Amino acid sequence: MATTRVLADDVVKLYDATDSKKLVATCFWGDTLKEVRRSGGRPVFALPRAVWNESKNRYDNVTTEVQPKKDVDFQDEPALKVRFVDVGQGDAAMIETPRGQRILIDGGEGPWFRRYLRVAYAHVLKSKSLHCDAIVVTHGDADHYDGLTELVTWKRNADDPMITADRVFHNGLVKGSGSDAKTIFGKTRSQNGEVYATGLVGDIRQVPLSQLNRPFQAWQSALKGLQSSNGPVKVKRLGYGDDAEFDFITDPKLEMRVLGPVVDDLNGTPALPLLHKPGSSSYSASHTINGHSVVLKMTYGNVRFLFGADLNEESEERLATHARTVGDSLAAEILKVPHHGSADFSPRMLEAVRPVVSVISSGDESVAKEYIHPRAGLVGAIGKYSRATVDKPLIYVTEMVAFFRRVRNAFETVGGQDKPIRNAYEKLQFGIVHVRTDGERVLVATHSGKDDQKESYAFRVDEQGGITWEETSIV
Predict the structure, then answer these.
(1) Same domain, 313 and 209
(2) Residues 58 and 157 in one domain
(3) What are phi and psi of 191, to 5 degrees?
(4) pTM of the predicted structure, to 2 decimals
(5) What is the CATH number of the domain that holds 65?
(6) 133 and 65 within one domain
(7) Dihedrals φ, ψ of 162, to 5°?
């Protein structure tokens, strides 16, 4: 009979139980495995995984018996897991609590997040849909939610969806036609010299199609088809202080705070002020929807995460001012850096967070989406305003922890003819940043171009936010 075991070692290489030279997978601290027997004094695990079938152009679910070459230690409880997933120029992250609850935060644009989940959760998808307790769409830009449209409409097989979800949270701004900030979000109201969006939406499924642009129409259709394993799917707008919406989290050590957007009250009507182009008095639709992103602060024991979505300088100053006014702290050990490392940021925001680990989600996928992210000034500012007691803070860029191989003799078909591609590259390893914690100790690990080489860092956080580092390792 299989026994569930939780790894206590930081990095564990698992080899084929019948071929000790064949590396099958690498697991990290807090991962759960099924021990099916022992051989040579060491456990043998049954490892379900997805393997690409080249001849059939698909992933096949297989289960392989694997074994570590060295003795490994185990612990009683899984770790809190946060994965920042490389989706090119976009955002996607997944939280998995020690009790197995899952929260998706954004989903990038295109198939990348779906493909990652298809492989990472092959052991679940082999027999059932992947259940998510909540999906958080921080804001309505395609590079944050278009991949979710594809994800929730994808089928695991002919009958079952790939994922189910109980809740979908968003910031309340939906886009109509055009690009004028004063009309694209529906109703507006002028007050005290400012213009506010007042047509904030609760349940996107109830909005007439005529009021939505094409991507939002597709997202609405996807939401209508989204299934739940616990009854109807709840779709709701979030604003600062809506912490009770995360009361479904069962782990008593885990707290989720909603810090953004900061919603104003105009005589009983919830409203979000239109934001401006940097250095201009003109209103900007893109800066408005970015700046009013859903911002989450997650605390697990002594360890704090801040998910900064696509905040910009104007909204960061607004959030920092509001937090000071109400006595909240933005301080966090792990920061998902806002807006892919844009130059439109507030140093005061970084100073308030004082991160130890900063993760920038960005990547080059097409010339049309080239924004020179992350900007050099932003990366330098992160170094300057990271935790003062830390000599070597960690800064990750999902694109930089990916691996690209140059492809020689690559061609593309243009007008029915094959033409050579200069400097063609193939992405062999997507840049996943793994963060694990038990509430005191933190492990941050990434992959590389070599299957048997991983980089990891570990540190401890005391109750006052003090940091103690452990030895760095490349395993």
Answers:
(1) yes
(2) no
(3) -160, 135
(4) 0.95
(5) 2.30.30
(6) no
(7) -70, -40
CA distance linking residue 462 with residue 19, whole number of Å: 43
pLDDT for 17 equals 96
**Per-residue pLDDT tens over the stretch 123-145:** 899 889 999 999 999 999 999 99
Shared domain for 108 and 54, answered yes or no, is no
Domain count, the chain: 2
Count of residues in the chain: 475
381 and 452 housed in the same domain: yes
Same domain, 133 and 69: no
CA gap 257, 297 in Å, rounded:
5
Which CATH number is 386's domain given? Answer: 3.60.15.10
The residue out of 47, 75, 103 marking a domain boundary is: 75
Rounded to an integer, what distance in angstroms lies between the CA atom of residue 274 and that of residue 282? 10
Confidence of residue 473 (pLDDT cuts 50, 70, 90): low
In whole angstroms, what is the distance from residue 273 CA to residue 193 CA?
A: 11
The verdict on 136 and 106 lying in the same domain is: yes
- Give the residue from 75, 90, 109 where a domain finishes: 75
Distance CA 429, CA 245 (A): 36
Cα dihedral 186/103/88/292 (nearest 10): 30
**Structural domain of residue 150, as residue ranges?**
79-474
Instruction: Give the residue among 382, 403, 404 at the shortest CA–CA distance from 393.
Output: 382
Spatial distance between the Cα atoms of 154 and 134, rounded to a whole number of angstroms: 17
Residue 354 token pair: 């004082």
CA distance 210 to 208: 5
What secondary structure does DSSP assign to 92-122, as a single string?
EEEEE-TTS-EEEEEE-SSSHHHHHHHHHTH
Mark whether 266 and 358 lie in a shared domain.
yes
With contact defined as beta carbons under 8 Å apart, do 170 and 137 qualify?
yes
SS3 345: coil
Coil, strand or helix at 56? coil
288-343: pLDDT as tens digits = 999 999 999 999 999 999 999 999 999 999 999 999 999 999 999 999 999 999 99
For 403, residues 6+ apart whose C-beta sits below 8 A from its C-beta are 427, 428, 429, 447, 448, 449
Q: Map residue 285 onto helix, strand or coil.
A: helix
Cα atoms in the Cβ-side hemisphere of radius 13 Å centred on 263: 24
